[in-house]
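Working notes for the structural subgroup meeting. M.R. asked for a predicted model of this chain before we commit to crystallization trials. I am recording the input and output together here so anyone reviewing the notebook later can reproduce the run.

Input as submitted:
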Amino acid sequence: MAYLPHAPLLLLIILVVPPNLSQSDIFETLFPTMQKHRMNKVMTQEALDYAVSKYNEISSDLNLSRVVEVLSVYKLQREGTIFYFEVILGQTICMKDESDLTNCPLFEQAVQQERKLCIFLVYVASDETHPSMETLTCTR
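Returned structure, recorded in token form:
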């Protein structure tokens, strides 16, 4: 696994953000070389899919979660690519242990519509074969 020299600082930024500033604003200020990015690239979508699958793998939720909204995406190109995702996740009606998870709609009832703001920091090596989750933070 590649070492990200800024990973501890990024984690600190993500976890200790003043409530009146968005994490995106702080990110742009401290890392001006990171560029705002769009979700229209295959590698970007694959990195987000990887992050969500890792979230589902380690979360204690019984239901599968999926992206409801992408709030921001940043990308930093170095020896590999670092993606910063700020997304809203919602719980689906699918249980994690079901065999077919291809069509999992979100809960329709307001009581069950649990949403989480999540920050994912994903590193994709330059050969694009081994993504790794560097940071995963979610709040309700």
